[in-house]
Design goal:
The structure is a single chain. The protein is α/β, with parallel strands linked by helices and about 350 residues long. It has two domains: about 5-170 and about 345-355, Response regulator (Rossmann fold, 3-Layer(aba) Sandwich); about 180-345, Rossmann fold (3-Layer(aba) Sandwich). Helices cover about 35% and strands about 20% of the residues. It is built from twelve helices and 13 strands. The chain has helices spanning about 15-25, 25-35, 45-55, 70-85, 135-140, 175-180, 210-225, 245-255, 270-280, 315-320, 325-345, 345-355, and strands at about 5-10, 35-40, 60-65, 90-95, 110-115, 115-120, 165, 195-200, 230-235, 255-260, 280-285, 290-295, 305. The strands form three sheets. Strands 2-1-3-4-5-7 form a six-stranded parallel β-sheet, sandwiched between helices. A five-stranded parallel β-sheet has the order 9-8-10-11-13, with helices on both faces. Helix 3 runs parallel beside helix 4 (about 70-85) and helix 6 (about 175-180) runs parallel beside helix 9 (about 270-280). It is globular and about 65 Å long. The protein starts with a strand and ends with a helix.
């Protein structure tokens, strides 16, 4: 008996669109292995998604929304979707980049709550953390950052912790899959790695500079001791300004780099992490040992090089691997292998199988 699935993309956000891509990329495998056919419907809001849900029949609904939706209104809408057809599987794909979210209040009304990345220790969600996450709490308590009222957090209703699980992160984007798995022809020119460390960063809005901007400027400051001995491309710019280079230049420089340094942004994972693996660069970034995510290219010392959240050992780690290219290359190849295996072993299809049972 076939299963009918409905993907409701209730946002025009580019991140949400990216998270919908694996459904299309794996349409054939989903049909063959799980006997499930998906219909993908776009709309502008959760309210519009609710109307669509009530008009369409489906065995499983995957709901992807904007992070701008009010958590209170979202709860009312998700409850109404659940009440309209209690027997349908309802899977909410959380839009927040952080390990935390404003939407844990939805847990009683969904079968699964999927996040790009979650805390390995779920009990930490019930601790009082400044800003809502271990990272922002560290910045406030250990680094003296002023977060003000900035926070992404919500309480987990008691007894619903087991509905939270990892979904799929930005590494499933179609462009990464193509770049990683493409075959190189014998006449392809090898890329000359003439940049030692690459770190181009966006600082967000110039008018509303927040802790995100401050942390990333601190990351660039930590690289400065390396400038006299190595070739660095390390710059930052505000959104919408000429300080941000064209996309073509960004990728040209990244591909020519030996090390890609990728500090945290609003959340721990970002596009740059997966770009590093795709283009044969050693990924160095703050330690990711507190999170679970899929695909997981963050195995310390094996697929990436972790540094302290305050960057205190960044210079040392960069010098070590720039002076030991064979060790760096082994980590790069490990990352590529682990990353490729996610696609080759059907990581996304396995996740869908888990949540529609």
């Amino acid at each position: 008996m076939s299963v009918k699935g409905l993907i409701l993309q209730a946002s025009n956000d580019s991140i949400v669109a990216t998270q919908c891509e694996p459904f299309a990329d794996n349409r054939k495998l989903l049909r063959q292995k799980l006997n499930i056919e998906f219909e993908h419907v776009k709309c502008d809001s959760l309210a519009a998604a609710s109307d669509i849900c009530k008009k369409k029949t489906a065995d499983a609904i995957f709901l992807l929304s904007s992070w701008r939706e009010s958590s209170t209104e979202a709860e009312e809408i998700i409850k109404s979707i659940r009440d309209s057809a209690p027997d349908r599987k309802l899977i909410f794909v959380d839009p927040f980049a952080q390990t935390s979210t404003r939407y844990f209040n939805l847990l009683p009304y969904v079968d699964w709550f999927l996040k790009r990345q979650i805390l390995k220790d779920i009990s930490k969600y019930n601790q009082q953390l400044i800003g809502g996450s271990p990272f922002t709490d560290f910045l406030a308590n250990q680094q003296g950052f002023e977060l003000g009222e900035w926070s992404v957090e919500s309480e987990i209703p008691e007894g619903y912790e087991n509905r939270i699980t990892t979904g799929w992160n930005l590494g499933t984007a179609n462009r990464f899959k193509k770049a990683l798995l493409k075959k190189r022809f014998w006449f392809s020119r090898p890329v000359v790695k003439d940049i030692d460390i690459f770190c181009r960063l966006s600082l967000g809005s110039q008018q509303k500079q927040e802790w995100y901007c401050q942390y990333r400027l601190a990351a660039l400051e930590a690289l400065k001791p390396l400038e006299s001995d190595y070739n660095l491309v390390a710059f930052a710019g505000f959104s919408g300004t000429s300080e941000l280079v064209p996309r073509r230049q960004y990728f040209d420089e990244l591909q020519r780099s030996r090390i890609v340094f990728s500090p945290f942004g609003w959340g721990e994972t970002c596009w740059r992490d997966f770009e590093a693996a795709c283009y044969n660069c050693l990924l160095i970034k703050p330690s990711m040992e507190h999170i679970a995510t899929e695909p997981n290219i963050f195995i310390p010392g094996k697929t990436y090089v972790p540094v302290q959240w305050d960057f205190s050992d960044l210079e040392e780690k960069c010098r070590y691997y720039l002076d030991r290219p064979d060790e760096a290359n082994q980590i790069i190849q490990n990352a590529r292998q682990v990353y490729a295996e996610y696609f080759e072993q059907g990581g996304f299809v396995n996740k869908i199988s888990q949540v529609i049972k």
